[in-house]
Amino acid sequence: MYRATPLYRAEQVKQGEVVAAKNAGIEMYQLMCSAGQCVFEHLIQRYGKQSKVLVLCGGGNNGGDGYVVAKLALERKIEVVVKALKEPSTLVGDAKQAYLDFVQAGGSVIDSDVVIEQFDVVVDALLGTGLNGEVRGEVAEQIMQVNASQVPVLAIDIPSGLCSNTGRALGQAIKATDTVSFIGIKQGLVTGQARRYSGTLHYAGLGVQLEFESQQEPSAYWDSPLLIEQLKSRDACAHKGSQGKALLIGGEQGLGGAILIAARACLKSGAGLTACLTSAENTLAGLVATPEVMFSTWQLTEVLQRLAWCDALALGPGLGQSEHAQQLLLTVMGINKPKVLDADALNLLSLQPNYDSQRIITPHPGEAARLLECSIMEVESNRYYAVERLQERYGGVVVLKGAGTLINDGKSTFVCGAGNSGMATGGMGDALTGVLVSLLAQGIELSLAARIGVMLHSYAADLNVEKYGLIGLTASDVIESLRSAIHSPVLVEQR
């Protein structure tokens, strides 16, 4: 059975690991040694025994982990240099013990500049998860030098300078190639700016995972492509009427491409019947491009008929903000059926806020800022908080798009663990709207439809990029990859 990966706030891990270790009968220093061992094993597996290693150690337990890694490297005759950005004599507790063990093993530290390009890999043990202020001074300068070197970086627990709760870079942050996260994966590693800094994530429970999870409620959940397997298989006697009737409304004059993209995405996501109401100028193009979709004009009589006909509806792609668009929004808001609002429907909603438990809204950061009456910077500085505020104000399920898209249903927050920067092109959000309304029409519950829809859309993009490359990806490319994403053999292999 599919299970999303639990995520946690830094405070939860800091408090919970002490209790978990005690319950497991493990000393905290032993836990530090286990963390260092995990990082060292990954180092050897990824870069080999012949690598020349630079370990950058700060103060605190993160620095202590670094000294454990360096000690293990010495014992395996691996060439290692340790640079201390925190005077070792000021270390306390387990970090001090780790340093003393490193020295006893024959190690020594330097505090002078090094030529980073002379090394094969850098181990980042500068700053831990407790960071909450801007990185400055010598540490900031060191981080900039590491990033400029383009030498691969293995970050311990979290890339130095990245906020473990929000995913925001606090001034300067290490751009890691790989990050090994301990005990519980920090929620800030998987959304927002973290996508630029975390690299490939690896998890190590250090032998206390079960004890930790038993006493800490996850702050969020990280979805994987295996979620797509929850799409129901077709009954042998299925017919088009049993697979859902989806309605899409949008496409003002000059904006027809958006609603045509959404309609085709809906069709390719499995809806039995798809109807699209749009400006008269778009109907011929729609019928030529996708004759399987029933296109008609968005006159009020046709709108009311189709609203009665459909199982779920979507409003917004290419809608515009005319008086007619406003009337359409008011009409749709009075319908007690599952619905998706996107694009201009969200801009109009920001002018007339209302609550609807039967709705998915899909704002990008700019639209989210308008809906919350704040700045885009405020939204992106704490995406978890922003998506919670949006759900509280507007109800239903909120999909906050971006790197590491968030889905909040009022009870839990989920993070999409797929997608890529090639998706930063026009029409991607329209395609997502089509996928979502298709799943709703097929009878999938609101929250699950939002999660699966976001994942299916993102995973289809990943499959396309894997085959053709990152640059030049279009919404139409993603749509044509939807069926492959649904039926991907990789999903079966990963079970």
Automatic annotation (TrEMBL):
Matches recorded under CDD domains: YXKO-related (cd01171)
Keywords: ATP-binding, Isomerase, Lyase, Metal-binding, Multifunctional enzyme, NAD, NADP, Nucleotide-binding, Potassium
Residue numbers binding (6S)-NADPHX: 61-65, 128-134, 157, 258, 318, 364, 430
Free-text function comment from the UniProt entry: Catalyzes the epimerization of the S- and R-forms of NAD(P)HX, a damaged form of NAD(P)H that is a result of enzymatic or heat-dependent hydration. This is a prerequisite for the S-specific NAD(P)H-hydrate dehydratase to allow the repair of both epimers of NAD(P)HX. Catalyzes the dehydration of the S-form of NAD(P)HX at the expense of ADP, which is converted to AMP. Together with NAD(P)HX epimerase, which catalyzes the epimerization of the S- and R-forms, the enzyme allows the repair of both epimers of NAD(P)HX, a damaged form of NAD(P)H that is a result of enzymatic or heat-dependent hydration.
Assembly, per entry: Homotetramer.
Family to which this protein belongs: Belongs to the NnrD/CARKD family. In the N-terminal section; belongs to the NnrE/AIBP family.
Record-given protein name: Bifunctional NAD(P)H-hydrate repair enzyme
Species this chain originates from: Vibrio panuliri
